[in-house]
Amino acid sequence: MDRILRGIMRYRVLDRAIMVKQFQEVRDNPVPKAIFYTCMDSRMIPTRFTETCVGDMFVVRNAGNLIPHSQHFIDEMTSCEPAGLELSCIINDIRHVIVCGHSDCKAMNLLYKLKSKKESNIEQRRISPLKSWLCTHGQTSLNKFLKMEGDFDKPMIFTAETPQRKFVAYIDPENKFCIEDKLSQVNTLQQLQNVASYGMLKKRLEKHDLHIHALWFDIYTGDIYYFSRRAKRFIIIDESTYECILAEIRRYYS
Predict the structure, then answer these.
(1) Which one of 5, 19, 78, 225 has the largest count of C-beta atoms within 10 Å of its C-beta?
(2) Taking a C-beta distance cutoff of 8 angstroms, is the pair 191, 65 a contact?
(3) Direct distance between the N- and C-terminal alpha carbons of the chain, in angstroms, rounded to an integer
(4) Looking at residue 27, what is its pLDDT?
């Protein structure tokens, strides 16, 4: 708390006036452009690495950047993640849903261990809310990952905006990342499929009025990757790829 209080005092001196001005500019008519789902990991600061400002986007964070599939909600929607989809995509009419995973994700590291029946049995889930969360909402990602049997030269198939709109993904074709990071990338792509499972988004997705994207952040290098459906893989966003990625987005997602 000492550290937080010192930070607040520093904010009052250095940043408060600028932020108040931004609040006043968007107070009566905020126009966010995206909703950004990412992990609650303390090293993830999405507004900083995207250089976004007050009013630019909604941000939802949880353990493992998971968006529960709609099949888990039969009578009532009882989760923050789909509520965020309604608030942003239905009430505020945003056009872009972004899911961002990252390297060394503690939730994904644990999900990988949950392939063991001993770690994921009912007794474990009853005493561990985190294991229960991951077993319930991360199991599809884990199953797809394990189905590869370690052979990531093979393509993976995901669906996105509609069941008919499938895309191919090659996970870490250069074999740069550890096995848990590969799972993190699979999990990030699986969330696109989960987002599209909500009936309230169906018409907008079918009309190409709402778009779903995947990013992946490498904690240790600070590099950010965009999943290119044209390239069928995560590609680093840098000076050499920026124009190509931008052209893809303008062609297919604008």
Answers:
(1) 225
(2) yes
(3) 44
(4) 77
Cα–Cα distance for residue pair 188/38, rounded to 1 Å: 9
Strand partners, 216: 101, 225
In tens, the pLDDT along 169-191 reads 999 999 999 999 999 999 999 99
Run of H or E residues at 55:
none
Angle (deg, nearest 10), helices 106-113 and 179-195: 100
- Report how far residue 167's alpha carbon sits from residue 160's, in angstroms, rounded to the nearest whole number: 7
Q: pLDDT tens for residues 30-46?
A: 788 999 999 999 999 99
Overall pTM surpassing 0.85 (yes/no): yes
- Is the pLDDT at 81 greater than 90? The verdict is yes
* Residues in contact with 13: Cβ distance below 8 Å, sequence separation at least 6, in sequence order: none
Contact status, residue 178 vs residue 150, Cβ threshold 8 Å: no
pLDDT at residue 77, as a whole number: 62
178 is in an annotated binding site: no
Instruction: Round to whole Å and give the CA distance between 113 and 37.
Output: 23
Kindly give the interhelix angle for 16-26 and 2-14, rounded to the nearest 10 degrees: 70
105 annotated ligand binder: yes
Positive or negative, the Cα torsion across 216, 185, 192, 74?
A: negative
CA–CA separation, 232 vs 156, rounded Å? 10
The number of beta carbons lying within 10 Å of the beta carbon of residue 218 is 17
Contact 41, 102 (CB under 8 A): yes
Nearest residue to 185 (alpha-carbon basis) of 154, 144, 151: 144
Question: What H or E segment, with its residue span, contains residue 169?
Answer: strand 166-169
